[in-house]
Write a structure and sequence with these properties.
The complex is a heterodimer of chains A (271) and B (265).
Chain A (H helix, E strand, L loop, with lengths): L1 E8 L8 E2 L2 E5 L2 E2 L5 E4 L5 E2 L11 E5 L4 E5 L5 E5 L2 E9 L4 E7 L3 H9 L4 E5 L11 E5 H8 L17 E4 L13 E4 L2 E10 L17 H9 L20 E10 L1 E4 L3 E5 L4
Parallel strand pairs in A: 13-14
Antiparallel strand pairs in A: 1-2, 1-14, 1-19, 3-4, 3-18, 5-6, 5-12, 7-8, 8-9, 10-11, 11-12, 13-17, 15-16, 15-19, 16-17
Chain B lengths: L1 E7 L8 E3 L1 E5 L2 E2 L5 E4 L5 E2 L11 E5 L4 E6 L3 E6 L3 E9 L2 E8 L3 H9 L4 E5 L11 E5 H10 L8 H4 L3 E4 L13 E4 L2 E10 L17 H7 L13 E10 L1 E4 L4 E2 L10
Classes of the chains: A mainly beta (271), B mainly beta (265).
């Protein structure tokens, strides 16, 4: 039996991840997830990779009244209804370009103060476009656990470090790699698993502070690219994968609700 | 499958230590539950009777044969663990455990902390201080499953379950299918004896001992009553006896001893 063991979102890309009990999943991904992102004075996206301490900022968006609240370390809170002034930007998200609208109001100044560099807040035009490659990411609890057992430093690795939307319990470590092409059904949704997720240096950061801590990338490298015959696929990734893979991307095929504890059924790809 | 977590304590009922590695003898994890507490009437005092025991942290130095107990607000109370007194027999649910009262500085400090007479007993033989069998196992997926049956976090964690070895990479309750079989854990081999009936300790916050979750109800609701009319008990994880002593390390493979090794450290 597979089941949903954790749901993690954030309305502003790069800021602190929050545990959720339920997600509304539309074709664009989870409602209010990565609805906003930050750009610097040259229009480049700024996320945890460029500025780790963003993880110290809490963000909350209420879709009912359109209010965004940012909470900064030290207690400063900035809250206002989200208003866009008409300036549109096109931002390179590495895998794709995202269209956004610059948000007016007090957010940019507060973010700039915190980061010590010019930052502007941007709202995505199309829901789901604020994700890196595909709107959903999924990892198994067993993969996280397996990584934690690789060294004594890894024991306390926090699931939020990998910034995955959905965590699934009840399978073998990295079994999610074998779901590629197949469909996961749970709650009232159906999700198509597309490909494994290549990881970047953000996974070296402590998710609470954004500062470098345990080197999860190296720990993953050691076993995911191992040639040691004692390790078996899927713990070892296929040799053609050039980056270090952890978790899988998915898209929503049937929108609906997914909640903690929902049982998940897997159907392999139709051949 | 792999070892996901190891935990033990030398003094029954007190806070569990997370271990990276532990030797496993025929008596279970080495130095696990070597000592327990009794009240002035000689009755066992464990987390079930006094939840705040989990605020105490005990350490045992095998080379010096010393027991240390960190008591909130009173520092660490340390003394030799070989000053044995009167032989005592302590009722542990369904069996009697033979031990010797231990003379030392603990009784005064612990009694003052707990507001009741508490005395340290050292078991006559290692493994006598466990509830039934020397090793308990539960899978990470089963704990996730129970956690979610209880609602969202924060709720039961592995310290509340108080199992000695947690297994990663399997299905929820897969460990129940191992009853009657041998299992290799690292280079040790255990024989799985049966499911573990759980008590109110699993309902307590492992940081404070306060009653926090209705774990037993979730465990009862999670499976149908036995068809033969025997009592419907809250069951979680399995217990085991040690067939081949060895060493367990976090990340070590867990598998059928007849299979070739998988994913060793």
């Amino acid at each position: 039996m597979l089941f949903v063991s954790r749901l993690l979102t954030t309305p502003v890309k790069g800021t602190r991840i929050v545990e959720r009990r339920t997600l509304e999943l539309g074709l664009g991904g989870a409602a209010s997830d990565r609805l906003f992102y930050l750009v610097d004075d040259r229009g480049r996206v700024v996320n945890g990779r460029q500025h780790g301490p963003l993880a110290e900022i809490g963000s909350r968006f209420d879709p009912a009244d359109g209010r965004l609240t940012l909470t900064f370390p030290g207690g400063e809170t900035v809250a206002a209804p989200v208003r866009v002034g008409g300036e549109q930007v096109r931002t390179d998200f590495f895998s794709h370009d995202t269209m956004g609208e610059v948000v007016d109001g007090p957010f940019a100044a507060a973010l700039t103060r915190h980061a010590g560099r010019d930052l502007r807040l941007v709202r995505v035009v199309e829901p789901g476009a604020g994700s890196d490659r595909h709107p959903l990411s999924i990892v198994s609890s067993a993969s996280l656990d397996f990584l934690r057992t690789r060294s004594e430093d890894a024991l306390e690795v926090d699931a939020r470090r990998f910034r995955m939307l959905i965590e699934v319990s009840g399978c073998r470590p990295h079994e999610e790699d074998t779901w590629t092409g197949g469909v996961l059904r749970g709650g009232t949704v159906a999700l198509r698993v597309l490909e494994t997720v290549p990881r970047c240096s953000v996974v070296r950061q402590d998710p609470a502070t954004g500062l470098r801590s345990f080197d999860a990338l190296r720990a993953l490298l050691e076993y995911r690219k191992s040639r040691d015959s004692r390790y078996r696929w899927p713990v070892v990734q296929p040799p053609e994968a050039r980056q270090i893979m952890f978790g899988v991307y998915a898209v929503v095929e049937q929108p609906g609700t997914l909640s903690l504890g929902d049982e998940i059924e897997f159907a392999a790809a139709d051949l | 499958m792999f070892v996901n977590h190891i935990q033990s304590t030398p003094l029954k009922g007190t806070r569990l230590h997370t271990l990276w590695r532990s030797a496993v003898s025929e008596h279970g994890l080495v130095d696990d539950r070597l000592f327990h507490l009794v009240d002035d009437d000689g009755r066992l005092v464990n987390g079930r009777r006094y939840g705040p025991l989990v605020r105490l942290q005990a350490t045992y130095d095998r080379d010096r044969d010393e027991l240390g107990v960190a008591v909130p607000g009173r520092g660490v109370v340390t003394g030799r663990a070989d000053r044995l007194g009167e032989a005592v027999s302590t009722r542990f649910f369904d069996h009697d455990v033979q031990g010797r009262l231990l003379h030392g500085p603990w009784a005064a400090a612990l009694s003052a902390y707990a507001g009741r007479g508490l005395h340290v007993v050292r078991v006559v033989r290692p493994s006598f201080g466990v509830d039934k069998h020397p090793v308990t196992l539960v899978s990470a997926a089963t704990l996730d499953w129970v956690r979610l049956r209880l609602g969202a976090p924060p709720c039961i964690d592995r310290r509340a379950a108080r199992m000695s070895i947690e297994i990663g990479g399997c299905r929820p309750r897969e460990e129940e299918t191992w009853v009657g079989r041998d299992l290799r854990i690292g280079d040790a081999v255990v024989h799985i004896v049966g499911l573990v009936p759980r008590c109110v300790v699993t309902q307590q916050d492992p940081a404070t001992g306060a009653h926090s979750w209705n774990t037993m109800r979730a465990l009862l609701d999670g499976r149908p009553p036995p068809p033969d009319g025997t009592p419907h008990k809250p069951l979680l994880g399995v217990h085991a006896v040690v067939v081949t002593p060895g060493t367990v390390v976090v990340g070590a493979p867990v598998d059928d001893p007849t299979d070739p090794q998988e994913n060793p450290r």
